[in-house]
Amino acid sequence: MIEKTLGKIYIGLILVFMYTPILVLIALSFNDSRSRVVWGGFTLKWYRTLFDNSSIMSAFGTTAALAFVSAAVASLIGLFAAIGIYSMKKRSVKVMLFFTNIPLLNADIVTGIALMLWFVRFFPLGFVSVLTAHITFNIPYVILCILPKLETMDIRQFEAARDLGASTAYAFTKVILPDLLPGILAGFFMAVTMSMDDFVITYFTKGPGVNTLSTLIYGEIRKGIKPEMYALSSVLFLLVLIILIIANKTDTVKEN
Amino acid sequence: MKKQMTSLLLVICMVSCCLCGCSGAPGSSDSNELTVFNYSEYLDPEMIEQFTKETGIKIKYEEATTPEEMYTKYISGAISYDLLCTSDYMVKRLIDEGQAQEVDFASMENFSNIDPKYLKISESFDPGNKYSLPYFWGTVGILYNTKKVKGPIDSWDVLFNGDYKGQIIMQDSMRDSFMVALKYLGYSLNTQDENEIHEAAELLKKQKDDVESYLVDEARDEVVAENATMAVVYSGEAYLGHDFNPDLEYVVPKEGSNLWVDSWIVTKNCKNTENAKKFLDFLCRDDVAYANFEYIYYSTPNKAAVDMMDDDLRNNPAIVPTDDSIKDCEVYEAFDEKTTSLYSDLWKEIKSE
Amino acid sequence: MNRKRTRFLSTPYILWIVGFTVIPLLFVFAKAFTDQSGTFTFGNVTAIFDSVHRKALLLSVELAFISSLICILISYPAALIIKASGVSNKKTIMFIMILPMWMNFILRILAIQMLISSNGIINHFLTVLGISPMSIINTPVAIVIGMVYDYLPYMLLPVLNCVLAIPEDIIEASKDLGANRFHVLTKILLPLSLSGIGSGITMVFVPSMTEFVIANILGGGKIQLLGNIIEQEFSVSMNWNLGSGLSVTLMIFVLLTTVIFGRTTSESDRGFVI
User: Domain count of chain B?
Assistant: First the structure.
């Protein structure tokens, strides 16, 4: 019993460590002062002015578009790549995984500058260049999420379906895809998260006038972050939280 | 569950795509468009909208935090900027490297709003005022907490004498930090004498133990939060610092300091100089200059804007520095390559000490 | 599945790797092995032995090592507790771990700074409680806190994944055969979760090695990691050749680490799959 309580306390402490900074940021969104180090009383006004702030709203739009489009493309390419890698010989697998790991292992600044040096040569920097960069660093996450699922998958079912006369495409969508779906979704979710969170690579590959929340925040660090930014982050955070809770609820209901 | 998750994610995806209308196509060089590069938070975004409303010229607005960062981004050629606003020594460097276009500023309707005093100061990096147009200016000094200091603050000495160990914030910029040490030692801040520079570097190395942190503009917030007693800051930070925490005062030390001017230049890439001039003219207009001033509270060289201030603002030395406080101040000059790399090397040594 | 045929499914990806990973890297290598006038040199790569760079590299390794170690020490017991508690909904746990990442990374680090700065929130509480305030901001300790905070999920997820996958029967069986708890831990649990720990170490160690934003914000500009120096070569000193040279050295270093830890990592445990 004591052990259980101690365990709970331990997990609780980890959660406190992870979520205290988040609480600080949420608190700042209610702070009636333009400076983050002065508490000026409670206010909701940043949540109202947020929607009038065109630079934040457009940066949010760009960030979201970037995150979802890059994650979607990365999931597609990554899914096919994972299946391809899965059916390769052991040595080729090693080579492929090595290259897959490069974007993960490289310092962001190196990836960012390398891509910029390269992009500048053949197309103007803009939304598309950042998108390409994000897809590049997102694919590895997708592959690394899907591969293990492939390895635990029972390939005989697919072969059985084929033997029973199903077309490859049909057998793929009916047998393989459902098995891989958790992996694809996890990869997609990781990719969205990574894309939303990236600053360095975006900074170097973005074109004029293209701003994401990260690049906007970076510019604001020195002069003080706009309080609307905290408001937006809090809204976003709660939105994701609610979605996950709903998803979880329906999950448990189904299981019961 | 899987289906729900997929549909949920799809919904988020669609909603967000609608929200942004899939914004942002890659930049094409539309003739009725200007790409403007400026320091972050240095121009009221509403003024950009107003400019587009008045003239129909679209602005692509880009920001950076330091002159070096700007230079790197500009020179890499990744983005073709039409106009850029940067500091005196970087303006000089860009002019010297042939990156700036000569512009007939005098033909602009609102050019007369710029006080000739500042044009004269600008001559030190742009002789004849052919390439650059002053935008904001100021000094470098000490922002300190009157409740926590032990005596009057009027000299760089307080940063070096050990009285405020662990309570000092220095500028995280090699020129500004070296400037403080050089001025304290009684040298010119533009000295290219190796011995003097080495002496300043030794002083800064010794000082590092007493330094709380090396920051740029975020130094102001740290002093406001009383995490440090004093910080080396640009004069423009002093007004808001005092506003957030009334105990804070700003002083330009008696040994003299740096006088800086941030100016606009039209780059050689700019094809439509008429539009660029329209933009600069717009910035010089009294109401626009005042709006930009009110956005950041830095000192403006625009006398029409100064006239629009109320007495409190106009008599505040942090906003309109007195002639007396700037008499010992020097403007940065661009260094030759040898001194630049000496500075970089020594600065790297200091920072990793 | 016809393996020969499905192999070609990865063609788009291979093209993508060549176009956007390999070729850009060649640009970096080209810069690393030339000087500013464009002649071939090893100088930018061997520059790592200059005292300033060597010091930064050693400090980077040290902090990355400490951060990884702390992450293991936090994660492993947590994974065991979660396993023992019988919570089977791994998805929920994964989401709880990843959720903080939806607050922007820079904002989160700024929040940490506000918490631990000398006149910060935690010190306010300590003073109220009559405990003497701590001064950790702008020291390596602060940077380690930031790294552990930011990268803990990268360790927790693979370790948890691995520990939860250990069949309960094995543990029961060993207990029946008279193993005490210490033996269960050292002879059964630990060896079976090594691969998770291995990939966790790579996932934490690598970003900690190359990091510069955390060091900038929490180190107050007083502490230079190799990432900071590279960043400054690119953005301040404008010496892209030296920056590229140091990056190449950093890459080699990172690759060595992954090879060392990669040995204990079977492919299937890579990543943070639930």
Answer: 2
Tell whether C237 lies on the interface with B, counting CB pairs under 8 A: yes
Q: Which two tokens stand for residue A205?
A: 């590959």
The radius of gyration of chain C from alpha carbons, rounded to an integer in Å, stands at 22
Indicate the residue of A67, A209, A243 with minimum beta-carbon distance to B8. Answer: A243
This prediction's pTM: 0.86
Helix (H, G, I), strand (E, B) or coil at C130: coil
Distance CA B326, CA B320 (A): 11
Tell the CATH topology of C47-269: MetI-like fold (1.10.3720)
Residues in A 33-62 with any Cβ partner in C closer than 8 A: 36-37
Q: Measuring CA to CA, which residue among C52, C36, C54 is closest to residue C250?
A: C54
Which domain covers residue B156, as residue numbers?
138-258+329-351
Tens-level pLDDT at each residue, chain A (256 residues): 788 889 889 999 999 999 999 999 999 999 998 888 888 899 999 999 998 888 899 999 999 999 999 999 999 999 999 988 888 888 888 888 888 888 877 778 788 888 988 888 777 788 999 999 999 999 998 998 888 788 777 778 888 888 888 888 888 888 888 888 888 988 898 899 889 888 889 988 888 888 899 988 888 887 788 899 999 999 999 998 898 888 777 766 665 5
**Strand segments (E) across C144-231:** none
Give the CA distances from residue C132 to residues A256, B213, C114, C127, in Å, rounded to whole numbers and listed in that order.
52, 22, 18, 6
Tell me which architecture the domain covering A60-156+183-225 has in CATH: Orthogonal Bundle (1.10)
Task: Judge if B117 and B207 occupy the same domain.
Answer: no
The whole-angstrom separation of Cα B146 and Cα A119 is 52
Question: How far is C119 from chain B, CA to nearest CA, in Å?
Answer: 5
Is there a single domain that holds both residue B83 and residue B160? no
pLDDT digits (tens, 9 = 90+) for C227-260: 899 888 887 777 889 999 998 898 888 888 777 7
Nearest CB partner across the interface for A37, out of B19, B65, B225: B225
Does C258 touch chain B if contact means CB atoms closer than 8 Å?
A: no
Residues B45 and B193 in one domain: no
The H helix count followed by the E strand count for chain B is: 15, 9
CA B163 remoteness from chain centre: 30
The Cα-based distances of C256 to A123, B101, C207 in angstroms read 35, 50, 14
